[in-house]
Amino acid sequence: MTSGHPAVSPIQGTTRLYAVLGDPVAQVQAPALMNPVLAELNLDAVVVPVHARPQHLETVVRGLQRMENLDGMFVTVPHKVAVRGLADRCGPTVDIVGSANVLRREADGGWLAENFDGSGFVAGLVGAGHAPEGGRAALVGAGGAGSAIAAALLTAGVERLSVYDTDTAKLTALAARLDRHWPGRVHVLSGPHLRDVDIAVNATPLGLRADDPLPFSLESLPRDCVVADIIMKPRETRLLREAVARGHRIHHGIHMLEGQLNSYRAFFDLR
Fold it and tell me: Is 233 considered catalytic here?
């Protein structure tokens, strides 16, 4: 029985490498999505997971950067903010949101950081019929992915974006950065109490584990509000299960990564 995907090319001495950095790393979906793309393009390359603890991140990244057959890195929780400082240059989105989710080796040997989390999330929303333009959105989680999603929602035309994070310093800093580009459209919440919104987004790690609490209460959300989660595994987080039970439309985390595939292909010049 075949999966419908092209077979991944055999690993050999000429194979180019891409690493996915995270802690934990068992939940990452980039290898499952990217390797069939590489195989379809007949590229001798493979994406592999690399489990890096925060205290070892710089050591791991510096080691990977010195591997001559490694062309790039994908970055997930909790390294997106820290990895920005390990790049030689940053794209414009990274400067706005303060985090990166991908690094590319440049022709001169330097490393360029960029962030496609936000654009991928919005592309996934639009593809699922949940266009954010002109609406009101609320976002819980001001970390690496949350920051990128916040900027992308504003770029996509959200009229009002409400943001909350338990880390008030991180929350205040993000709001200030966003307000410089989209004055008057960003509102800081004092708690995870979301109401009067069209889209509610969980951009925290809450939901990765079965015993995690909900990132925000569903009780005050309008019935027609879309509840979105960026967690990819498990696919059905507790938040999404309870949202369905209350009659909400839901949006799964995998759509954010699927929405980034074309951006990754262009960024790494995969053709």
Answer: no
